[in-house]
Amino acid sequence: MLTLCIETSHEKSIVGIVDKETILFKFELPTSSPSSRYLFPAILEAFDKTSLSPSDLESIVVGVGPGSYTGIRVGVSAVKSLSQVLEIPLVGICSLECFLPPKEGSFVAAIDAKSGGMY
User: Fold this and answer.
1) Could you tell me if 86 and 58 are in contact, meaning their C-beta atoms sit under 8 angstroms apart?
2) In what order do the strands lie in the sheet containing 22-28?
3) Count helices and strands in the chain by DSSP H and E runs
């Protein structure tokens, strides 16, 4: 299943395309600028580098937090529009799941909440 993956809820924002469990494209957005500035150029680059088109996608996955409220809104708004135009499923996942290793066991995933706390 060809999937566009977007994570913009924290400072390490990522755009990727995966096919089942194979990463075809991964790009980390610059941390010094708002993700909204680089999100669509990164999505376009993903299609260019993989020689795919948006119509090849079968689904979209987006991180829905916890994290930056503005970052979450940017990512969700962008891919919600894209999923509606392409008529493909949009799935929201907990952003902390992106930090778990791909193996069995007990793990803790934590990100800086920027207020002296952590998620």
Assistant:
1) no
2) 22-28, 14-19, 2-7, 59-63, 90-93
3) 2, 5
Average pLDDT of the chain, as a whole number: 88
Contact between residue 29 and residue 35 where contact means Cβ atoms under 8 Å apart: yes
Strands 2-7 and 90-93: unpaired
Taking the C-alpha atoms of residue 104 and residue 92, their distance in angstroms, rounded to an integer, is 23
Question: Is the overall model pTM greater than 0.90, yes or no?
Answer: no
Q: Rounded mean pLDDT of 7-35?
A: 86
Give pLDDT, residue 6. 93
What is the C-alpha to C-alpha distance for residues 86 and 91, in angstroms, rounded to an integer?
A: 14
The neighbour count for residue 65, using CB atoms within 10 Å, is: 20
**What is the Cα gyration radius of the chain?**
14
Distance from C-alpha of 119 to C-alpha of 112, rounded to nearest angstrom: 6
Q: Which residues contact 100 (CB under 8 A, 6 or more apart)?
A: 107, 109
